[in-house]
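Our preliminary data section would be incomplete without showing what the modeling component actually yields. Below, a chain of 390 amino acids is followed by its predicted structure, encoded as tokens that our downstream tools consume directly.
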Amino acid sequence: MSSLQLSPMLWLVGFQLGLYAFAWVLVSQLLGEERSAVMHWGLFLLLTSVTLMLAGARTEPRSWLVYNGANIASLFAFASMRRGVERFMRLPPSDREQALLLGAACAVFAWLGPGPEQASWRVVLAYGVQGVIMLRTFQRAWAPMRAEFGRRTLIAIAVPGLMIGTMLMFLSLRQLFDWSNPNEMQRNTTASVALMYYYLGGAALFNFGFMVLLTQRLVLGLRRASRRDELTGIANRRAMDEALERAWQRFHRHGRGFAVVLVDIDHFKRINDTLGHAAGDAVLVQVAQRLQQHARASDAVGRVGGEEFLLLLDETAAAPARLSAERLRTLLDGAPVAAAGQALTVTASVGVAVIDVRDRDVDALIRRADRALYRAKADGRNRVAFDDGA
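Predicted structure:
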């Protein structure tokens, strides 16, 4: 295979990467928050495609564009990939570091000529800088990826990326120890053909890996949204039912008790009728925030009705549950909330019940807390009532 025969392979691989880039651009139009990251990934594939096509256009006499220009395009491709990963993982951008690295590398490429006597320098610099960018990318993204996606996904995504970065560094070092035989892409060598398969395999890994990350984030986001109250941002009834069921299982397996606190805003309908639903929504949001701030990390707080909230107090006995409920009541009554340009005094009636062996199921416990809540309302509101199951 001559160098001219290798050119069609470079063009073919470059064209395939260009199609990948086009696909990512289309995907980005369907996304909002992730659009910037996806566009950077598309640019990475597009610039890599340009790199290969320029390499496929290499002929004699040599021109600066298809030799040095191709290498510069490859560096900006990897820089775009890193920027996309940083955007996706919400990491501070490494613009300064990348600007220094790319500026220095581009200055050297600008100084080097396209001739064969500078070929080994170009190979060492191009693969070396690509490898550094790749390794630095996954070094920075390792911890946040593990925290968000878990160990298995991290291994599936980051390990191939680190392997690609290591291989790029190997190609750079290999050229250093074989200086007289420049490993340029267009040359008819086993290494050049293997490099084309590397680009195909690497692109496939890239597309698969980041599609997995993107899909997993979207699925997790939908799952969280399905368990969050749209107005207040705290847990909704579905999420609270699941939390109660888990607490019930812990109680029966390990004897870990818990308490349920129902909070109902007093005269909430009056707020909606006199000040409007926007004011009522503002009250609900601020009450939810106060309840969430009051709760411990082990507790669960949710909105389970129009103006009704539920707190699950983990490993809490009767006396601490009463005390906690009273603090909640005074927390709401003690400071006004802002709604419709006014400072409104908001009070709440509170019902408390602690799990008991006589409760046949979670619903029985909730009914007791609800019974206590109605007693608090009947006794004049803005007070706490407790149901001991007697």
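The domain at 237-387 is CATH 3.30.70.270 (Alpha-Beta Plaits). The two ends are 91 Å apart (CA to CA). Preliminary results of this kind motivate Aim 1 of the renewal.
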